[in-house]
Amino acid sequence: MPTTPAPAPDAAEQRSTVRALLRLWPYVRPVRARLGTAAVIAILASCVGLVIPLVLKWMVDGPVADGDPAGVWLGALYLLLLGVAEALLFGLRRWLVARPLAGVEAGMRADLYRHLQRLPVAFHDRWASGQLLSRGTTDLMLLRMFLAFPLTFLLVNGVTILIGVGIMLVQDWTLGLVILGPAVPVMITCGIFEKKYSAVARRAQDQVGDLTTVVEESVLGIRIIKGFGRHRSQARAFHELSHTLRGTELRKARLLAAIWAVIVTLPEVAIGAALVVGAVQVSDGALSAGTLVAFLSTALALRWPVESIGFLLAMSQEAATATDRYFEVMDAEVESGLAAGSRAAGAARTGGGSTSQAVQAPGEARLPAPAAGLRFEHVRFRYPDAAPDSPPLLTDVTLHIRPGESMALVGATGSGKTTLTALVPRLHEVTGGRITLDGEDITALPREELRARVAVAFEEPTLFSATVGANVLMGAGPDAGDEELDRALAVAQADFVHGLPEGTRTQVGEQGLSLSGGQRQRLALARAVVGRPRFLVLDDPLSALDVHTEAAVEAALRDVLADTTALIVAHRPSTVLLADRVALLSEGRIAAVGTHHELLRTSPEYAHLMSGLDGHVNAEGFQEGDGR
Ligand SMILES: Nc1ncnc2c1ncn2[C@@H]1O[C@H](COP(=O)(O)OP(=O)(O)O)[C@@H](O)[C@H]1O
Ligand SMILES: [Mg+2]
Description:
Blueprint: H1 9-14, H2 17-22, H3 25-28, H4 32-66, H5 69-118, H6 121-126, H7 129-148, H8 150-171, H9 173-180, H10 183-220, H11 222-227, H12 231-284, H13 289-301, H14 303-307, H15 309-330, H16 343-350, E1 374-381, E2 394-401, E3 406-411, H17 417-423, E4 432-437, E5 440-441, H18 447-453, E6 454-457, H19 468-473, H20 482-491, H21 517-529, E7 535-539, H22 547-561, E8 565-569, H23 573-576, E9 581-586, E10 589-594, H24 596-602, H25 604-610
Parallel strand pairs: 3-8, 3-9, 6-7, 7-8
Antiparallel strand pairs: 1-2, 1-4, 4-5, 9-10
Magnesium ion binds next to helix 17.
């Protein structure tokens, strides 16, 4: 399984939290008015809370000192009204932000998904799917929570603290200074905390991604795990990862506990000190009792804004990390030549990473190119993540498949046949030379159109959680109907479909695991031919079929292939005989081209491959077991 390129550990520490979070602006912009209003309302609510101590002061120095019960009742009524107003305002704020923020989250998730569909296969080869999954779920949830709370409340609490401290200084500046004493140590602690917490938060979120990968792999590979009795070792691997994650989460909790201790204790001590100093002043007559009450209740009202700073900072850190992780994916380069407006359509076709189906998209109005077939000209290719000193996988592939011709591609396992077929729909980019369709360089064609012209079926047939019919019709334009579907199923000899409980409307399970390998291959083949593509690229599409079904598919394919230019990777002489000519791929180049019988005579390597010595087939075309 590919691993995710993790950033250098210190990169996470050096980046600024604010700069990371600023990247969210394009998503927040549309809801900025609501968020702004909500923040203003929250500040208002906090200020209402700060008025309460002033009413208290008026009560203590006025009606209470004068023994006036009516005044006390009036004061109590004021306090009640203020309390209700504060609660209502906070409620209004919540209501204001809930809906737009759910929208922001959904928008970001949709963007991520769309982007993932447009990223090249090479990207998906490199990234573990669990990492992508966790970015689309956990990280986006963290971001929504950040926008709902810390973003507003860091501002609101900051303003509240400033106003509160102002009020306290006005009441009595010596007491105010006593209260302000812990400010500097608290700020220093916050700074240290932020740095440490950001590194741990990043680690935790990456570990969630790794954990997701293990879960995903074991769900997809449940048959292998059970079949080989690996559930214990798999459970152990999961346990180890979750144990590591638990350790990281505990470290986060310890950091939070430490900052919490400082943030709670120091102000508490300061309030105690202010109480003592204030009480002395009141007994000296230097300060009114009402002022002291007001002062202390203001200080107490500020306790929550100060104490919450710890976890607000923590949430902001996690959100910054989540933003980084989100944009790591969003910053990856998409395939060039996919028009932004048509991305959804293009995305559907590259879905699944390993399967690509052509859709007869209307494309731009182009002059029909003169039929010139499919041409490989000195094609070189190496995988981007291959060892730097290794030779390219394909060194110099030159091959011409004439219009309407079908060419079989034969080569030893690992010789690069699958890779060569993936180059035609540009699932990978050639690193040298060029490939032309009817004389047009495939890199000059819009990807949309390229993939509409070329239909592909791979040896590993990927099906989606949809009906059988929908899976096949993915390969056709939007207006293809039952007629095309039935024709394609007939060509692929997929009559078994009509015997399924609900015919073509039967749902296939995730990845088509409820079907046999041969059945899946036939559906993938039907998908490849349903759109009547001009170019057909089949990577060993019949490998899982029994000899009789294979013969029937071949007979039906002959009709399709008559007017289609096709490149067919084949292992068995029976499949090879279907083709007009055969090309032998060996050591990164086309070593020989000719008919099956010519090559049997002239190429010892070909004769050897076809002789069944490598376990696949014998020269008469009879299967010697599945061979894999
Ligand atoms: N995504 C990839 N990244 C790096 N190397 C790859 C990748 N896919 C295949 N390879 C390597 O390329 C070689 C040819 O693979 P492939 O084209 O599948 O061969 P074939 O289909 O002829 O059996 C193999 O050695 C394989 O390890
Ligand atoms: Mg292969």
